[in-house]
Amino acid sequence: MDAKAGTLARDEVSVESQWDLTGLYSFDDVWSTELTELEAEIEKYASFAGTLGESALKLKACLEFDMNFSRQLEKLYTFSHLKNDEDKTNSLYQGNFEKVMMLVNEASRASSFIQSEIMSIPDDTMQAFLADKELEFYRFHLEQVLRYRVHTLSEKEEALLAATGEMSRGMRDAFDMLDNADLKLGEVEDENGETVILTHGNFQSLLQSYDRRVRQDAFNTYYKAYESHQYTYSTLLAGSIKKDLFYSRAKKFSSYRAKALFSENIPVEVYDNLLESVHQNLDPLYKYFDLRKRLLELDELHMYDCNVPLVKDMKWHMPFEQAVEEIKSALHPLGEEYVEQLGRGLSVDRWTDRYENKGKRSGAYSSGCYDSNPFILMNYREDNINSAYTLAHEAGHSMHSFYSRKNQPYLYSDYTIFVAEVASTFNEALLTRHFLSQDIAPDMRIYLICREIDNFRGTLYRQTMFAEFEHQVYKAMEGNEPLTLEPFKKIYRDLLERYFGPGVVLDDCLSLECFRIPHFYFSFYVYKYATGISAAYALADRVTSGGETELNDYLGFLKSGGSKYPIDLLKSAGVDMLSPEPVKTALAKFSTLVDELEQLTQ
């Protein structure tokens, strides 16, 4: 099945390997009927406008209507986006997805008055409302909204800012088109002398080639393409930063970083602790690069040498069903109930769309809504160990959502991005522990340890470097320093030197890497990857070395959804992200892995 799955049309894929969406909608016409009915409900939003400050009951009525409308819309959206991702060439589901997105935009416009009208309610009146039993259920939700009171403008000003939404995506959209459509990355010769068209997708694969000439050619050719558009890329990134600063100043924030962290109530010391802790623990990273240089028998280690697997010809074969069993065994510390539910979801209840087919969306994700099971999109490959890890990762997201939706009302069932990667990375950590606990060949042990090291390197060190770059360039522009091509390159070059140390030769073109990172157009997002892996490993250590209390604390975190601010959710699970300790614990784990790799490869 696995070898030929990508060549199959959707209707040729076996039913048991597809996700089961019948719990959402059994027939397309039922979906269409509900969409039409919900479209007719939009006009009811207008009946609440201008009434929210009259009484607690009227405010409650509006919030209830909005919550129920959103819940129905989420169900319609979930079904349409899942069906659309099954086969991007299916015109029916393309059209349905466009229809529901039009409804999403209409609903956003129709409900836009709610937040500003809540803000305009006098403080003494709002305090009386919050003390009213009618609004007890909505109290935390309203408190989250009211935090923005000092950053909310007049109704006309807010309407004007809202109207700039489409325009504000211009820099990001232009980057996407340039980077994914117009940019020609060139061609290289592979190990067999065959000409290969270079793409973003195969670039990483070429950097893992054991033929150094292939790696070097791919690297230089790739960055030459960026060099030919470097002024455009720097202008787009500078424009995106200027756009962000416009919004942060308009909303009366001290900085854009403060605005970005405000939405999840993350204190700025969380960000600063991350940077400082990583700065203090760069030596193990330098040691790893020295190890790479020795094991690859190189006179000089360049960036294009940093992704080559240190174990050659590692054979891997694990069918989907076996991966499920291995993951269940790995997650045994989470208790019988967790493991049983996950196994039933992945196997019996068909949460997962397993294999690639023609037209299917690439990659992997976990999705779903309050009124459905979690769903996992995979493009599983039996010959790739990363598929097993990806399944464990997405299963972590799915079980987090499952517990959250089962234990929280709709309003508080969604967790924020700050905690979103914790459960998924936690599962990956336990899977590695499970594999390493088995009687495996020395080469497989080295391979798994290298994989874990590179996961830390890519998620903790690299994303922290990105976070520091963002912090520096935003501070520069907020200080009225011009950000043109050369300042961007210098800031990034200085960070490369700090994070890679004296053991890696940094080719000049690497300073252009900052222009190819899409996350910089979703500013102050990347630090959450680094804090997420830190929290996950701290919790994994706590649960596996603890007892029933520690397990219940973690399961309580999974069940809490968005009922508290993310820092408070993690604290209740046993990790204090206001302290630098979770990051230092993760960095110590990295150092231990590097030491073990050194011993295994003496």
Please explain how this structure is put together.
This protein has 602 residues and is mainly α. Helix content is 62%, strand content 3%. α16 (320-330) crosses α19 (417-436) and α19 packs across α22.
Low-confidence stretches: none
Number of strands: 7
The coarse silhouette is: globular
Q: Given the helix and strand composition, which structural class is it?
A: mainly alpha
Mean of pLDDT: 94
Please report the distance between the alpha carbons of the first and last residues: 41 Å
Number of helices in the DSSP assignment: 25
Give helix % range.
55-70%
Query: Nearest-angstrom radius of gyration?
Result: 25 Å
Spatial strand sequence of the major β-sheet: 4-6-5
The description of the largest β-sheet is: 3 strands, mixed
Beta-strand content bin: under 5%
Brief descriptors of the model:
602 residues; mainly alpha; two-stranded antiparallel ribbon; 25 helices; 62% helix; globular
Q: Nutshell version of this structure?
A:
The chain is mainly α and 602 residues long. Helix content is 62%, strand content 3%.
Task: Set out the fold topology.
Elements: H1 28-41, H2 56-86, H3 91-110, H4 113-120, H5 123-131, H6 139-146, H7 155-163, H8 165-168, H9 170-182, E1 187-189, E2 195-197, H10 200-206, H11 212-227, H12 230-250, H13 256-262, H14 268-279, H15 283-295, E3 301-302, H16 320-330, H17 336-348, E4 352-353, E5 365-367, E6 375-377, H18 385-407, H19 417-436, H20 442-478, H21 485-500, E7 504-505, H22 527-545, H23 548-559, H24 566-573, H25 581-600
Parallel strand pairs: 3-7, 4-6
Antiparallel strand pairs: 1-2, 5-6
Helix pairs in contact: 1-2, 2-3, 9-12, 15-25, 16-17, 16-19, 18-19, 19-20, 19-22, 20-21, 20-22, 20-25, 22-23, 22-25, 23-24
